[in-house]
User: What shape does this take?
Amino acid sequence: MPDILREWTGKAEDDFRIVRRLCEGPSPSANGICFHAQQCVEKFLKALLIQNGFEPPRSHDLEQLRNMLGATAPKDMPAAADLAFLNVCAVELRYPGFEPEQALVDRVLELCIAARASARPRLPKPRPQRTMKIDPSLFDEVGDAPDTQA
Assistant: This one.
């Protein structure tokens, strides 16, 4: 079981790193931040479920996952009702017609950071990531997205 826990923890940490990177710079991607923050919390909850002997469902519903933990949930883990707030980030946010406001992004980040702070010390170290070299010149001919062109 430790290998699968290390894998879930690593995937959660990977989403957390993506969130941090997306927050950098003058024009952060609110959609990307919210999506990966939800994914980070989902993966930490699934790791905690496995650690406590539960089989996590194939679900993005953070309220359901948090409720499954029941009495085994860390005391400092955000409440299920609070985590339900992140559910909108898993699906609705990925489609046109929904643009997150600053207050929503701030709340998403607050919940993600709190859930990670609660789960991370209780889980094994993540499995080391495979080192890859991606050639950034792959994007040279693509150009910038229309909203970022001068």
